[in-house]
Amino acid sequence: MALRTIELWRGGIDLVSPFRTSFGTDTSRDLLYVHAVGDSNSGWGECVAGVEPNYSSEYLENCVEVISRFLVPLINRDTTAESFIKSATPIRGNYMSKACVEAALLDVQLRDQNISMAKFLGATKSRVASGVSVGIQNSLDDLVRVVGEYIAQGYVRVKLKIEPGTDIELVRTIRKEFGDELLLQVDANAAYTIADASHLKQLDAFNLLLIEQPLPEDDLAGHIELSRVISTPVCLDESVTSLDTARGALDLKACSVINIKPGRVGGYLEAKKIHDLCLERGVPVWCGGMLETGIGRAANLALAALPGFTLPGDISASARYFARDITEPFVIKNGHIDVPNTVGIGVAPLPEMLAKFKKTASFNLSA
Ligand code: OSB
Ligand code: MG
Asked: Is residue 43 located within the same domain as residue 157?
């Protein structure tokens, strides 16, 4: 029941189609996994950082450095996910680095304890409603076709990426094409400023579930002002990096919905705390995504099964992202994806997929 080694694994998997947001275009996932190897079991954690620091200030190579140089030295044979997160408090920021180490430690310890991540976190659902995040397309025709395909596959909620110049018309077109019943929301990834408030107010005509992260990460005042001016609920993604920022944003009415991403807030333990706060306050939350492979997706499903996750999240089927996932693929059935219910995160990399990856570091732990 003790840890032996922390390994870092690197590789990449192509996306089935390019994913374009207001901050850039991804055609593949460059991957970093943390593998925590114990005496009897091992656990996996996926790093959600991108190659470039454009979603947030974190990026993959920096995570490799932070994990190797600052986080692994905090781990000994008896470290748990909880004790690791506590000891990592003096390391500022670096949420995505902390989160993937924590995830690997959680996976191995829950396997040792013979319980599932879903059970450990307090899941109340065995499957979760599946939404899809649709990147910016080359034309409105392409967008209509792509959204139509996702709806045909059963996705229960559609999120459209927007940016200045491709926003109001895009929403108008999708509403006209697919009707008022479609659960629809938009995500700007911080592409606007508060000077765009009256422009964004035009979105109020389309009965959107929410607008996600319209303004820059640090513009709390702007989000407070925008929330007063528009009736579409404001949801924060990038701005919420911890329980404290979540509480502050809610207290100051900068948002009325929160997108919880474990990677962005430093792990599943912190994500659960944000969920608990929001549940207590009746604030709806949903589980975001970072184009995770099956390792990150499995853990996100466990989190999204908690009772406060009342809005469909961005957890789509493996096939929406990859021709072949690193794990057994997650599939959508009647608009839902099953929550893994076996020990730990319930999945592990398939040997034939892992064979294409490289173990780039291995740290032996001391007592
Ligand atoms: O802002 O939610 C986002 C993907 C990468 C980085 C940021 C975001 C996203 C998504 C995709 O919207 C969500 C998913 O399907 O994983
Ligand atoms: Mg977002």
From this structure: no
